[in-house]
Amino acid sequence: MFHDKHLDRRILKICIYAAVTALITFGIGLAIYNSGPFWSKASSIVGAVMRPVITGIVIAYLMMPLTNAIDRRLTRGRESSPHSSRTRGLSVLLTMAILIGIIAALAFILVITVNKTVRNINLDQFRALGEQLQAQYSELIDGINSLLAQKGITLDSLAPRAMGFVKKGLGIGKVLFFGLIFSIYFLYDGVHIGAYWKNAARAILPDKARSVGRQLLMDADEAFSGYIRGQLIDAVIVGILVSVAMLIARMPFAFIIGLMTGFGNLIPYMGPLFGYGTVVLTSLVGGNVFEHPGKLITGIVILAIIQFIDGNIINPRLLSNQVRVHPLFVIACIIAGGALGGLLGMLLAVPVGAFIKKQFERFLMARERKKASQT
Predict the structure, then answer these.
(1) C-alpha span between 249 and 43 (Å, rounded)
(2) Does the pTM of the predicted model rise above 0.70?
(3) Averaged over 22-48, what is the pLDDT?
(4) Do residues 239 and 295 lie in contact, with contact meaning Cβ atoms separated by under 8 Å?
C-alpha cells in the first residue's frame, strides 16, 4: 500500500511539473507573440548599429596594409615597436588623409568634367538627335511608355520615387560617414580589439571549435584580402589609363568613361560592358554620332586595347598569388551573387565562391584521408 502511495505521489509530481512547464512555455510564446513591435524595433536598432560597424570593418580591412606600411616606415630605426600609440595615430591620420584626398579629387574632377561638357552641349543638336531617335525607334518608345503606364508610373508618381531615392542616398551617406569613424578606431586599436576577442573565444569556445574558426578566418582572409585589394588597384589603373587615353583622343566625358570602366573592372567580365556602354552614351550626348562616328570608333578601339593589356598583363600580375578558379565558376558566382545581393553581391561573388570552393576541397581531402585510414 505504501508503494502505491509513493507511486501516486511521483505521478502527481510529474503531472505538476508537466503542467507548470506547459504554462511557462505558453506564457513565453504568448509574450513573444504580443511583443512583435518590440522585436521589430529591436531588430531595426541592431541593424542601424551593425551597418556602420560592418562598413567600418570593411574599410579598415582594405586600408590596413597601407596603414601598416606607413606605420613601419615611421617606426623604422626607432625604439618604439610597431602599432605603438605614438606612431599609430599618425599612420591612421595619413591613411585617412590619402583616402579622403582621393575621393575629393575624383569628385572634383567629375564635377568639372560634367560642368564643362554640359556647357559645350548644343541643345539644338541634342534636340535633333532626340527627334531622330524617336523617328527611328518610335515603336520601341511607344512600347516603353505603354509598359510604364501599365505599371502605374507617371510623372506625378515620379516625385515620391525621387524622394525615396534621395532618402536612400542620405541613408547610405550616413552609414558611410559613421563607418569611416568606426574604421579609424579599428585601424588605430585593431590589435587590442583582436586580442580581446581572441581571449573571449578562448574562454567560451572549446579548443576544436576555436581551431576550426581560426582556419575558416585564415581561408576567408586568403580568399578576400588579396583579391579585393588587387581588383581595387586594377580598377584604379584601368580607370586612369582609360581617362588619359580618352583625354588625348579628345573624347567627350573622358573622365566619366574612365571612371565607369574602372568601376566595371571591379566585377570580372563587366569592365568592357561598362566601358563600351559609357562610350556609346557619351558619344550620343557629346555629338552627332550618326554623322561623325569617328569618336565612337576611336573610343571603342582605345577601350579594346586597354582591356587587352589589362586582361593579359596587369590583372594577372596583381592577382597572381590569389585563389585560382575556373572562368565558368566565376561566371556562375557572378550570376548567383547578382541574384542574391545585386551589385554588391556581384562585387563579392568571386571571393565568396573561392572561399566556398576551398572549404569543399578541404572536405574532399578529409574524406580521402578517412578512407585511406580505413583501408
Answers:
(1) 53
(2) no
(3) 71
(4) no
